[in-house]
Amino acid sequence: MRPFFNTVKLDPLRLVFSPNLLNRRKTTFVSLPSFTCPNKTLTRIQTPGVFYCREMATVSSESAAGAVVQVKDKVELNEVEKQIFDRFVNTLRHFSLNTELRVAGGWVRDKLLGKECYDIDIAIDNMSGSEFVDKVREYLLSTGEEAHGVGIIPRNPDQSKHLETARMRLLDLWIDFVNLRSEDYSENSRIPTMTFGTAKEDAYRRDLTINSLFYNINTGSVEDLTGRGIEDLKSGKIVTPLPPKDTFLDDPLRVLRAIRFGARFGFVFEEELIKAAACDDVKNALAAKVSKERVGTEIDLMISGNQPVKAMTYIADLTLFWVVFTLHPKVEPAVSEECQGLCVAYLDAAWNLVQLIGGSSFIGEQRRLCLYAALFLPFRDTIYKDEKGKKVPVVNYIFRDSLKQKASDPETVIKIHRSLEKFLTLIPLLTSNDDTQPAEVDMGMELFDVPITSKLRVATGFLLREVKEFWRAGLLLSTLLYPSDTDSTRDFLEKQFELDRRRDLFKAAEDAIVNLGLEKVWDLKPLVNGKDIMTVLHLKSGGPIVREWQQKLLAWQLAHPAGTVEECLDWMKETHLKRAKVE
Prior knowledge:
Pfam families: PolyA_pol (PF01743). InterPro entries: NT_sf, PolA_pol_head_dom. Belongs to the tRNA nucleotidyltransferase/poly(A) polymerase family. It comes from Salix dunnii. The chain is of the alpha+beta class. The chain folds into 4 domains: 70-233, Beta Polymerase, domain 2; 236-324, Orthogonal Bundle (Hydrophobic Seed Protein); 336-442 and 451-524, no CATH class; 530-580, no CATH class. Helix content is 45%, strand content 13%. It contains 23 helices and 18 strands. The chain has a 7-stranded mixed beta sheet. Strands 1-2-4-3 form a 4-stranded mixed beta sheet, with no helix packed on it. The chain has a 3-stranded antiparallel beta sheet with strand order 16-17-18. A hairpin with a 4-residue loop joins β12 (214-216) and β13 (221-223). α14 (365-375) runs parallel beside α18, α15 runs antiparallel to α16 and α17 (455-467) crosses α22 (544-559). The longest helix is centred in the C-terminal third of the chain and has 23 residues, at 408-430.
């Protein structure tokens, strides 16, 4: 296969190398400086200041041999699972029920891979989930055991919840119960008509063969009713039980699920699946038939998962990026189609640096929103105008309209983006070995009567109070952009990017912030409140003057961390008198 070129036009920011999409043999153009590309060759081409990074990799489709995956011959139950399933079997015996119980989907897959899974879904062949839960509860009561958390999750087609689900809690595990079903989709809706089905029909309606396996509780055996589930699991392949285009058009959300599982397990995609996922019919169906909430949930699982870069790379390579991350129709400045490559490249950079720094500083929401901020970094200066003509960051639109995620997510990511320029100003000061302090710290604000030796602490303190506990995310992204005035072509072949150096830069700045005693400066309580300020100034009501003095007093407090209330008030009175005399 001959290499091909994917040109990405970039903004003036520094770009980092992104692994090639779908692991195909590629050559990607990048603007520099960029990251060192392990096992890849950087070569200069004719265009000044542009280099490419050549990667030779395996085609990620069924034409290449899938990974050899260690799969167990049978499901091995732990003690809790044995006790839970024994209760179900005893329920069948107690009521003389001719019912087969199966564990469906991801639990079976994970157990065969030797992984623990606490998401147990029970599929029932001849009654509804709620009917069987009532039987289990009645049986448990007959033995003196009380059932906990029994409830019904109703159908919610608008949220892709097509079937009523019964739920109960046994031995501290939540168990879901549904009946086996067959689905029939109409042309213009992803909401199917549901009917009772056989186990085989249920298996074929699943998204992927590796998720179509059953564990039959009655017989204690694994059932592979598509005939491919175990084979595809062993060979590491992402395959749909039915023709992929039909599967995706029935429920386009399955495209994103295929990407998520492919990235999570490092499995390869069937060739026909790749074609189907990237075709216009499926992309149009994904845009029209799937709720934004469900899309947002899948994207969030990818970003929070173990392979966020690979997942976003697949989305970009399958030309789904702008289907998923739709922008407002009137953005300023205009965003080019090629910007998706830059988004993935920044995500790649941030992910690699997070791994190098160590995960303890970036866990949970810290890691999740840091990666989102990296992914959307090329959009940080892009805006649109709302109905009132107000300029709004397009990142807000992506989170709220394209992904329907919680309002705090765009607020935090936008704060991280806005912190970057200030961090870029502070990094050389925080990491300097020179004990002398600069005469000025340009932070876009006046530091009132702050001693020169305290200006760095005050400026950094104000910045951290803006971004709060996500300051490390802002610092990390800033280290990727540092220094902001570097000539992108200068000595690149000799220096490349040196990811280790970026880690050292981050750690040096982080240590300096911690040594300044600012790690949780946003929790700092003001020594003087608004009423005290009004008393000193002889004001009857608050307003801009009070807010101005609150900033001044906070700056004084940051400059004098051991200062007392009395000292702070004395400074305020003295400063106010001086100002009054001048005026």
